[in-house]
Amino acid sequence: MTIPTFGNQNEHENYVTRQGVYAVIPNQDRSKIILVQAPNGAWFLPGGEIEIGENHLQALERELIEELGFTVKIGSYYGQADEYFYSSHRDTHFYHPAYLYEVTDFQAISKPLEDFNHLAWFPADEAIAKLKRGSHKWGVTEWQKKQPSTNSLT
């Protein structure tokens, strides 16, 4: 299976690898998903960098407590999507493999530990339009493909 890749790799640049894990988290009736807005205004799926010694699920569980104050039940693994981008904030070119998961249930157990982000719920199509990273847009599209059709006749 081919890994979807977003952004352009410039062969003349040195890239720092930054692996991340992210989740598509729908609300109870699955009509909206939650996004995190960083202080710079960019929207992302909840999640973040995998730290040394963590596996995907450990990193995702830690990130969701930090960003949302949620404990979660992890569902499907949608796969890896790679991204090449330049961060002007860090003045660094990144190669960013992103591992994307579905959350099937969550419970808010505390306020987010990171209090500088803005959280908001959006319908999936609106979320895709707002998301900064192509890999995150891909994750939401994969989630949409697995949702029961609302157009089926019963």
List the helices and strands and how they pair.
Elements: E1 5-6, E2 15-17, E3 20-24, E4 33-37, E5 43-44, E6 47-49, H1 56-68, E7 70-87, E8 92-108, E9 118-122, H2 124-130, H3 134-145
Parallel strand pairs: 1-7, 2-8, 3-8
Antiparallel strand pairs: 3-6, 4-5, 4-9, 7-8
Helix pairs in contact: 2-3
Q: What do these coordinates show?
A:
- The chain is of the alpha/beta class and 154 residues long.
- Helix content is 21%, strand content 39%.
- The chain has helices spanning 56-68, 124-130, 134-145, and strands spanning 5-6, 15-17, 20-24, 33-37, 43-44, 47-49, 70-87, 92-108, 118-122.
- Strands 1, 2, 3, 6, 7 and 8 form a six-stranded mixed sheet that branches.
- The chain is globular, with a radius of gyration of 16 Å.
- The model has no long low-confidence stretch (mean pLDDT 93).
